[in-house]
Specification:
The complex is a heterodimer of chains A (943) and B (444). Chain A has 943 residues and is of the alpha/beta class. Chain A has a domain of 130 residues. Chain A has 29 helices and 16 strands. In chain A, helix 17 packs antiparallel against helix 18. Chain A is flat, with a radius of gyration of 87 Å. About 3% of the residues of chain A have low confidence. By secondary structure, chain B is α/β, with parallel strands linked by helices. In chain B, helix 4 packs across helix 6 and helix 8 packs antiparallel against helix 11. The radius of gyration of chain B is 26 Å and the shape is elongated. The chains are: A alpha/beta (943), B alpha/beta (444).
Chain lengths: 943, 444
């Protein structure tokens, strides 16, 4: 593979620059400084392997003289002899986000980058820059060629092809191993498992120790059971004695009570006969005592009743005195109808008073009627009628009739004048014409009104137009009114239809005659004037007024006379009623023995005295009855008291004060009775106490020897000793109980622990966990082993490759280095690699000494590494592909002799590889051309 | 033979290797509900054994050693064992017990202290003891037995037995390793079938081998029955621990052993699913196939819970997915979720990915590239491990570099080389597959 041409579109300082038809052998690219040689080296690398991904990478070189960042590179495979059999690769590559790449082969069209890489023998940029594209900086050290990736690519990848690199595979395996286990404490799986396993083992040891303690635990449990039994027995014994002592103490009290009761019973005495009799009469005694206070009250009441009787008697006497000698208590008791008499008396008094009032009122009214003015002036009015007018011939005629005549006269006069006027107008016809015109007009008005009415009626039927309907209703009303007026006018006009002149004259004559008749009736000239008529009318009106006044006066007088008559009639009736009532009252008094002269009030007073006397007699009877009752009760109580006193007296007692002070004596006797009863109760109580205590003692102590022992102990009554023993025993019991509780708790704990231990699956759990962890650890170790073995296989295979292939490289490089140094150094030792953290290459001098390459001069070192790279390039070509070698002024540090020798080596290499030799030194160009005249020289211009 | 006519028909139960209350081996962390049931499994299996005796009205129970797993003898296990025998005793069923290499007489620890329940015979070490057994007052069998005094009992204890003068069926109870019967077991109390046959007993109730085996005996044959019932409850995913585990119900008719019946007493079973990935398109397909296979296995487990281990093998593109870190673990978690909350449960213990890349090893081996060199190197390592004495320890030593100190012990190094019984070169095979897969990694 060689570079046959390129074109830089834009790259660093290069722009639109290219070279075609480069020679397959040695090509000298010569130019001054800043001609772009180093840029060209980076351009060619970028074209082959891509642009650096980072823009700040020194080899990224963005264009600063224009052009698109990138360009084209043409590669050729084949002999390059112009036969046309070469395979052409054209690579167009541009930097930028899209990283545009276009690879085309002359035989098959487009190709991928993988195809290109395969065509480059699997070499990558690192390998290319380390071995094939070298400048002075690279040449100064072996770092590039000793890197693992470069070595591995050099010695193996070219064979394996597109597989993952062995170095990366080893790295990956190692990473996986480190995830499984790490040498020191780490988070790797094995380390975690070991840590957990350690914990589990510790737990297991602990659990096993606990389990091993099971028999001891059982023995301890058995011992605790015995101890608990002993302690419980001690406690029971103490409890028993304590119960005995409690019993003794309690029974001692019972025994004491029994003894006391017995002693008191012995001291008890019988009560006296009187006391015993009282005991028998206890109920009577208590009854008397209870009734004693009532007895005393009754005695006091009797005294009060007697006083009350005296008062009533005195009142009765006063009442009898006021009634008169005819009255005595017997008559009064018999006259029990006085209540009705009082009521009747009252009614009489009220009736008489009412009649008297009525008579008095009637008298006043009669006097008033007699004094009325209408009656007083009755004589004056009789001869004073209103005088009629002397000059009025019709003054005696009815004014109303006369007024009708005047009215008719007026109408006839008016008719007369009209007819006269009509007669006068009859010769001119004007009156007829005028009437016709009026009739025409009235007819037109009738028609117009009808039209309006019809239109209004039609419009009023218009729906949904209330306002319009309202307006037309009004119009209709107006029309109707107009119609009515028109019709009236017409009727009037029609009524006054024009007459013929003869008829008018005749009518005028009749009217004139009637006027004369009427005027005459009224006392007027036959042809009265209007003033005559009016004067007559006025007179008639005055007469009519006077007539109305007179009529009013007549009506009032008639009414006053009627009233006077009526009042006198009422007065007479009132007097008659009063007299009749007085007569009935007198008859009533006589009938009831009351004084005939007594007024109604006096009658009522007499009846009040009768009532008081009657009530006194009734009260006297009631008091007497109560006096009798109280006297009887008092006598009965005093009899019972006397019997009690006699009974006591008979039994030796002397209750003298019983009569004098029954209450106090009865209290004393009751107290004595209580004493006797107390004595009796005391005896019964003592007997009961003795019986109860005896029973209690027997029941509590029981029977048998133990009971007898306790009885004896109780009888001994060592109470103090018992108390002391109780105190001591209480302390001992507390200790015993505490010990028992402790033992029971300890036994329970031990039992629980033993049960838990027996049921515990902890050992099994831990054992299972241990085995699981060991199993996992084993799997981890097995994986570790497999990973390690795989890595080992890869590593050994790689080493074997290095060992087998590296000597050939070194031999070739050593041979070339010997030539370059003219035999000063004979060969290279096969120790390329890293030693103690630094790269080491050793050379053997002509004297056989092994010399570390780092101790050589700069020029020698550069010659050594250049020879090494040429050897590597040739080895790579043998294994994979011959790639172009690009050298950037690598001869500048060499002396002329060695520079010539190296130039020869380059010329030799160029027979099998394309070598692009970049230089800015004309003498080096000359030097190369000197040793390789066939070399192609390309001149570069300063940018 | 005259005597045999008087013996009523009866049955007895033979169990061994109870390993009570011992944890399961070879299982990683489990869900709590699984852990609890696993923890109780051995005890529950023993309870099932007692129930079996009661249900079948067995004349007696024989337990041929390894009742406990170690001399420490868990307290819970001892109490449960005693209580179980007490239940049998209360039902009139005798029990005969010998101790084996896991629970020898002299090193055992007893938490019980008191005497055994009535009708329980624990045979001592040293001397074979013979005990007659009666059913309803009729002698039906004579049981002989002897316990291990120490764990490493190298004496052929079978030779101490002799045909006893006792009545009925002659039964011997012994914990021993019958040579040639099974591999992988410690050679304690070693004996041969001939040794056993020569004693003249009717039934040898043996213990020690965890696989169920009838080494001798068949119907209507005069050969003695020599029987390993296997352990009562499986304890690990090992091949010998898979499948049904339980006891033998031995039927005696007419004074002769007529039949031996296997009855499962286990509560949890182990199983292995092997799955070739060659024809599997993707992980979802793999998950589906595994789940389906697991359901089939669960259906065949007689209502027992299952602990499943899966082994992926074969070459295929799926290998590249499986070797991605975390993939196998995620698949395991997904399968566990698929079967969560089942009862009986089905617990996915692990997935062992032994798949290989879809690389034709033979072709690659014949090439001259890096892969060929890699394969050649692996082949060389295989050879060295097979032929050189120290190759394994050298490799282990090299691989242990970088491990924390406590893991760089000899035991840990042995673990590094794989589980016992595994092919020595298995590690190399897996490593080669991994390395090739890593090199293939960039392709995908």
């Amino acid at each position: 593979m060689r570079i046959s041409g390129f074109h830089v579109d834009g790259f660093g300082g290069l722009a639109d620059f290219g070279i075609e038809n480069l020679s397959p052998g040695l090509v000298v690219l010569s130019g001054p400084n800043e001609a772009g040689k180093s840029t060209l080296l980076d351009f060619l690398t970028a074209m082959l392997f891509g642009f650096p991904s980072r823009r700040d990478h020194p080899r990224f070189r963005p264009p600063f003289r224009g052009g698109r960042h990138g360009g084209r590179l043409t590669l050729a495979e084949g002999p390059g002899n112009g036969s046309g059999s070469d395979l052409q690769w054209q690579i167009e590559r541009y930097a930028g986000p899209r990283k545009e790449l276009n690879i085309r082969r002359s035989d098959s069209g487009s190709a991928s980058e993988e195809d290109l890489r395969r065509a480059l023998g699997g070499a990558d940029e690192a390998l290319f820059r380390a071995v094939f594209a070298v400048d002075l900086t690279d040449l100064g050290s072996a770092e590039g060629v000793t890197r693992d990736e470069v070595r591995e690519l050099l010695f193996s990848a070219s064979i394996v092809g597109q597989r993952r690199s062995a170095a990366r595979a080893m790295d990956n395996l190692q990473k996986q191993r480190l995830e499984l286990a790490r040498l020191r404490q780490g988070d790797a799986r094995a380390n975690r498992l070991m840590s957990e396993l350690e914990d589990v083992r510790r737990g297991l040891a602990e659990a096993s120790r606990e389990a091993a303690g099971y028999p001891a635990g059982r023995a301890e449990l058995a011992r605790l059971e015995l101890d608990v039994a002993d302690a419980r027995e001690d406690a029971d014994r103490s409890d028993r004695r304590m119960r005995e002592l409690d019993l003794l103490v309690r029974l001692w009290d019972v025994l004491e009570r029994k003894r006391d009761a017995e002693q008191r019973l012995r001291a008890w005495k019988e009560p006296t006969p009187a006391a015993m009799w009282l005991e028998e009469q206890a109920s009577e005694l208590h009854a008397l005592r209870a009734a004693c206070s009532g007895h005393l009250e009754r005695v006091a009441q009797l005294s009060d009743l007697r006083n009350q009787r005296g008062g009533i008697e005195q009142s009765l006497r006063a009442a009898l005195g006021s009634l008169g000698p005819d009255w005595d208590p017997e008559r009064i008791r018999a006259s029990d109808g006085w209540i009705g008499l009082v009521d009747e008396g009252r009614r009489f008094r009220e009736a008489i008073a009412e009649r008297e009032a009525r008579w008095s009122t009637a008298s006043a009214l009669a006097e008033e009627a007699d004094a009325a003015p209408e009656i007083a002036g009755l004589g004056e009015m009789d001869g004073t009628s209103a005088p009629m007018s002397a000059d009025d011939p019709t003054a005696d005629a009815d004014p109303e009739l006369r007024a009708g005549l005047v009215s008719e006269l007026r109408k006839n006069l008016a008719e007369q004048r009209r007819l006269t006027a009509e007669l006068r107008a009859g010769g001119h016809g004007g009156g007829t014409h005028s009437g016709a015109l009026e009739r025409t007009t009235s007819t037109s008005m009738v028609l117009l009104a009808l039209v309006v009415v019809v239109l209004a009626a039609v419009a009023a039927l218009a729906p949904d137009r209330p306002i319009v309907r309202g307006l037309f209703a009004a119009l209709a009303s107006g029309g109707c009114a107009l119609l009515i007026v028109a019709l009236a006018t017409r009727r009037r006009l029609l009524g006054a239809a024009p007459a013929q002149p003869g008829e008018v004259t005749s009518a005028r004559e009749r009217v004139t005659a009637r006027v004369a008749e009427l005027a005459t009736s009224l006392g007027l000239p036959t042809a009265p004037s209007d003033s005559d008529v009016e004067t007559a009318a006025e007179r008639i009106d005055a007469a009519r007024s006077r007539e109305r006044v007179l009529e009013d006066d007549r009506r009032r007088t008639t009414a006053a006379l009627a009233r006077r008559k009526s009042s006198h009639e009422s007065l007479e009736r009132a007097f008659e009623e009063l007299e009749a009532e007085r007569a009935r009252f007198s008859a009533w008094k006589v009938a009831h023995g009351l004084g005939a002269s007594l007024s109604p009030d006096a009658v009522l007073e007499s009846l009040a005295s009768l009532q008081a006397a009657w009530k006194d007699i009734a009260a006297l009877e009631r008091v007497d009855a109560r006096i009798v009752q109280r006297s009887t009760e008092i006598a009965g109580f005093e009899g019972r008291l006397a019997m009690l006193g006699a009974g006591l007296h008979d039994r030796g007692a002397n209750p003298e004060s019983l009569e004098a002070d029954p209450s106090g004596t009865l209290d004393d006797l009751c107290a004595s009775l209580e004493e006797v009863l107390d004595l009796r109760a005391t005896r019964a109580s003592l007997l009961r106490a003795i019986e109860e205590t005896s029973t209690e003692l027997e029941r509590s102590l029981g029977l048998g020897p133990e009971a007898r022992r306790l009885r004896a102990e109780l009888e001994a009554g060592e109470v103090l000793a018992w108390s002391e023993e109780q105190t001591a025993l209480d302390r001992a019991r507390s200790d015993t109980r505490h010990r028992l509780e402790q033992l029971v708790r300890a036994h329970q704990d031990a039992s629980n622990a033993l049960r838990d231990l027996a049921a515990s699956a902890r050992i099994a759990e831990l054992e299972q966990r241990r085995l699981a962890l060991e199993q996992e650890l084993e799997e981890v170790l097995r994986s570790w082993a497999v990973l390690g073995c795989a890595r080992l296989l890869l590593e050994r295979t790689l080493r074997r490759h290095e060992q087998e292939r590296q000597p050939a490289v070194l031999a070739r490089a050593g041979e070339r280095f010997a030539k370059v140094t003219e035999g000063r150094y004979t060969c290279l030792l096969p120790k390329v690699g890293n030693e103690g953290g630094r790269d080491v290459i050793r050379v053997v001098s002509s004297s056989g000494a092994e010399i570390d390459a780092s101790s050589l001069s700069r020029g020698s070192v550069e010659q050594l590494y250049l020879c090494l790279r040429l050897g590597l390039a040739e080895t790579f070509a043998e294994r994979a592909e011959s790639l172009p070698i690009i050298l950037d002024d690598v001869l500048v540090n060499f002396d002329p002799g060695r520079a010539a020798a190296v130039a020869e080596a380059l010329a030799d290499t160029a027979e099998r590889h394309q070598v692009l030799f970049l230089t800015c030194h004309p003498h080096l160009e000359e030097l190369v051309r000197g040793v390789a005249p066939e070399a192609q020289v390309v001149r570069l211009e300063r940018i | 033979m005259e005597e045999s006519f008087r013996i009523p028909d009866f049955s007895f139960v033979h169990a061994a290797d109870l390993h009570l209350d011992t944890p399961f081996k070879g299982i990683g962390s489990t869900a709590p509900y699984v852990a609890e049931q696993l923890r109780e499994a051995s005890l529950a299996a023993f309870d099932a054994l007692v129930d079996l005796c009661l249900q079948r009205k067995a004349a007696f129970l024989l337990i041929a050693g390894d009742i406990y797993d170690g001399p420490e003898r868990g307290l819970r296990a001892q109490l449960r064992f005693r209580d179980g025998l007490a239940r049998l005793s209360a039902a009139g069923i005798s029990s005969f017990v010998v101790h084996g290499n896991h629970d020898p007489v002299e090193t055992g620890w007893s938490a019980l202290g008191g005497p055994w329940p009535e009708r329980v015979t624990v045979f001592a070490s040293g001397t074979v003891q013979a005990v007659p057994v009666e059913v309803d007052g009729v002698p039906v069998a004579t049981v002989q037995g002897v316990s291990f005094a120490q764990r490493s009992e190298r004496e052929n204890l079978a030779l101490r037995f002799a045909h006893a003068a006792g009545p009925g069926v002659q039964v011997g109870v012994l914990h021993c390793n019958v040579r040639g019967a099974a591999s992988g077991y410690d050679d304690y109390s070693p004996c041969t079938l001939d040794d056993l046959r020569s004693v003249g007993l009717d039934y040898w109730a043996l213990g020690h081998i965890h696989s169920r085996m009838i080494l001798s005996g068949q119907r209507d044959s005069d050969d003695p029955w020599i029987v390993y019932p296997g352990n009562l409850q499986a304890r690990s995913p090992k091949p010998s621990e898979r499948g049904l585990k339980g006891a033998m119900v031995v039927h005696v008719r007419g004074g002769r052993i007529a039949d031996v019946e296997t009855v499962g007493c286990d509560v949890v079973r182990f199983d292995l699913l092997e799955q070739d990935v060659a024809s599997i398109a993707d992980l979802a397909d793999l998950r589906s196939r595994l789940a389906s296979a697991a359901r089939d296995r669960l259906a065949l487990a007689d209502g027992r819970s299952l602990v499943l281990r899966c082994q992926l093998a074969g070459q295929g593109e799926l290998h590249m997915d499986l070797r991605r870190p975390g993939t196998v673990h995620d698949l395991l978690v997904a399968l566990r979720e698929d079967f969560a909350d089942l009862q009986p449960f089905c617990w996915w213990d692990s997935i062992d990915d032994r798949s290989r890349p879809a690389l034709d090893l033979d072709s690659a081996r014949a090439g001259s590239d890096f892969a060929a060199d890699l394969i050649a190197l692996a082949d060389e390592l295989h050879l060295r491990l097979a032929n050189e004495e120290h190759a394994m320890s050298d490799l282990a030593s090299e691989l242990s570099e970088g491990l924390p100190g406590p893991l760089r012990t000899q035991r840990a190094l042995e673990r590094l080389m794989g589980s016992p019984g595994a092919e020595p070169g298995e590690l190399v095979d897996r490593a080669l597959a991994l390395a090739l897969g890593e090199l293939e990694g960039d392709r995908r």
